[in-house]
Specification:
This protein has about 300 residues and is mainly alpha-helical. The protein is built from ten helices and no strands.
């Protein structure tokens, strides 16, 4: 899109210069002062849009940073808290390992389900990205059919904690602490959904685009006479207006496009929050805590882009 804009600016500015210098359409020139004032106003407007868009991106990145932390906290608490209390029937070590594995794997599944939910990819990615971490196929199929699968998975985590508490494998205090961790997950999920489901205000998104193109349209009209009065290079000096007008118009256009690209940080674009890499990092960390050694490789940036 930026390349197309650059070409369009070049063709338009060249046409204005040709009409002015070769066909003597001198009525095209306008005073430079109003154009400069308009440029200043447009710069403030698109700057505000860019700041607002970046705030949305940065909040999304902070929320996913909190998801990394809460996932590690969940894993440590699951290991240390889900233990038999005194005077209760002692489970087999293999059963305890399976409990820990189920709790940690469901957490990995929740992270991937949230990523797919935010990207609207649940239908196409569930079987490969989420289902392998839900050890109960019935639970996986039930969650997949829900309108909000990650919420359903957290509900299963809560039910699992309740049953462990009833069995005596989780004391009341530890039960409350683990439920607080689930609440932290809900807080992070709700923050991400708020960004996803609240579009950037259209008045800023639309009018910043309109104002940039209006400024690009009047810019050569204000510059052409300014360059025509500089006679150091002779009659062809006026043509220097073209590269300068193209450059200024292109810079304004790029700033507007950058703000537009940052409006929704969960659209799986090259500049979005790298949720795939974050989920992979969480998976590796939690599976290492389980003692597993056959782990997937960490996601690395390709051409400075990480998804």
């Amino acid at each position: 899109m930026s390349r197309n804009g650059l070409l369009l600016f070049f063709l338009y500015d060249t046409l204005i210069c040709f009409l002015y210098s070769r066909l003597n359409f001198h009525f095209l020139d306008i005073p430079w002062q109003p154009v400069a004032t308009l440029g200043t106003a447009v710069a403030f407007y698109i700057g505000f849009k860019s700041n607002g868009s970046y705030d949305r991106f940065w909040e999304g990145r902070r929320l996913w940073g909190s998801i990394v932390n809460v996932s590690r906290t969940w894993a440590i608490r699951a290991f240390d808290f889900v233990q038999p209390t005194p005077n209760e029937m002692q489970p087999e070590p293999s059963e305890l390992r399976d409990l820990h594995r189920r709790l940690l794997y469901r957490q990995i599944g929740w992270c991937n389900a949230l990523r797919l939910h935010l990207r609207r990819q649940t239908a196409e990615g569930w079987e490969t990205e989420v289902a392998p971490f839900l050890l109960d196929p019935a639970e996986s199929e039930e969650a997949r059919r829900m309108s909000n699968p990650p919420t359903h998975l957290l509900r299963h985590q809560s039910e699992e904690l309740r049953m462990l508490h009833q069995r005596g494998l989780l004391s009341e205090f530890r039960h409350v602490a683990l439920m607080q961790t689930i609440q932290d997950m809900f807080d992070a999920q709700g923050g991400c959904e708020r960004i996803k489901n609240t579009p950037f205000p259209r008045q800023y998104a639309y009018f910043s685009f309109v104002f940039v193109w209006i400024f690009a349209a009047v810019l050569p009209l204000g510059l052409v006479e300014e360059f025509d009065h500089r006679e150091a290079l002779g009659e062809y000096h006026v043509w220097l207006m073209v590269p300068f007008a193209v450059l200024v118009s292109w810079v304004f256009n790029v700033i507007e496009l950058v703000g537009h690209a940052s409006e929704n940080p969960f659209d799986n674009q090259i500049n979005d929050v790298p949720m795939t890499a974050i989920c992979r990092s969480i998976e590796i960390d939690l599976r290492e805590l389980l003692g597993e050694t056959e782990l997937p490789p960490r996601t690395v940036a390709v051409n400075d882009v990480m998804y």
